[in-house]
Amino acid sequence: MNRRHFLSMLGAAPTLAAMGGQGASAQGLLNSEDLAQQAAAVWQAWKGAYLQPSGRVVDGLQQNASHSEGQGYGAVLAVEFADQEALTRILDWTEANLALRGDSLLAWRYLPDASNPVPDLNNASDGDLFYAWALVRAAARFNQRAYLQRAQQTAQALAARCIVPSLAQQGETIFLPGAQGFVHDNRIVFNPSYVMPLAMREVAAATGVVELAQTAQQAEGMLQRLAQSGPVPDWVQVTREGMTVATDFSDVAGYEAMRVPLYLIWSGLRQHPAVTQMMRVYDRTVQPGVPVPTRIDPTSGAVLEASNDPGYRALAGLVTCAGTPAQVGSDMPPFDASQPYYPATLQMFAMIAANQVSPECVPI
What we know:
Blueprint: H1 3-9, H2 13-18, H3 35-38, H4 40-50, E1 66-67, H5 68-80, H6 84-97, E2 109-110, H7 125-142, H8 145-161, E3 163-165, E4 173-175, E5 188-190, H9 197-207, H10 210-226, E6 236-239, E7 242-245, H11 259-266, H12 273-285, E8 292-296, E9 303-307, H13 310-322, H14 341-357
Helix pairs in contact: 4-14, 5-6, 5-7, 5-14, 7-8, 7-9, 8-9, 9-10, 11-12, 11-14, 12-13, 13-14
């Protein structure tokens, strides 16, 4: 797909035609502040497919459930596309249905058909992080201080309940997946894909909760060590002896860990070893018409599962381009709202990351 078609799928072709193909197109995608106008079509498609009028983001493959992750993701997208009306709906539903713990963190899952829709009050720290990040960006974009106050409450709770000292290295801290259930006498369970350095730094800077930025810095080193031998796995355990795969969780590089290189690229860390390892996997496996790997054995590199969903191909295109010095252009397909919520959202993030930090990775 060429650059013109890529921009057309984002609703940008008429503007670029009027500009004679110059201006914004010379920088790849459009500037972030222009996405609200020039990429309105793809945002409307995402909203129509996954966001209910109530403000609930629905994951159809997971019992039509909603998660704090999805609410945070949707809020980030609403801010990116300057849609305060959608943001308000997302925040209102989230506060009414997931802000039930009493500590400013969100319950991690809502099951619409259950007699008790929120049976587990434990949080998911990545959902809380993206929720706070959306609020921080919304406070600046819409000049609403109340958003920042709520973000600060979440950031303080994350620092108090989801950041703990590592068992493996003195002075190193770990971003827990949730407040309960992951710290044991002899190990700490860690999900590498819950770390989003850019979000952690922006939230820390805006709220003054510096522990988030410090933990992001240390997590980058942890991810570097994990990537020494292969792709970063979904779940890891930290003991006094070091880090190993958490075999009682997902021990592959799968649907969760695929976010690790995305978040690192979005954070400006395109040469991080975790990006390089996934780039190598995609280099040898991604071909036109062939499903894209979604679950990989981190030791052997064998592909265990693959998918034709365009969101996963878009992610592979971003990683391959961003991880390759001097490469221009990536293999990102058009956005397709008929795919499930998760790959669709990863595709949105891949497009935004390309726009914000890797404009050379827009297809040519």
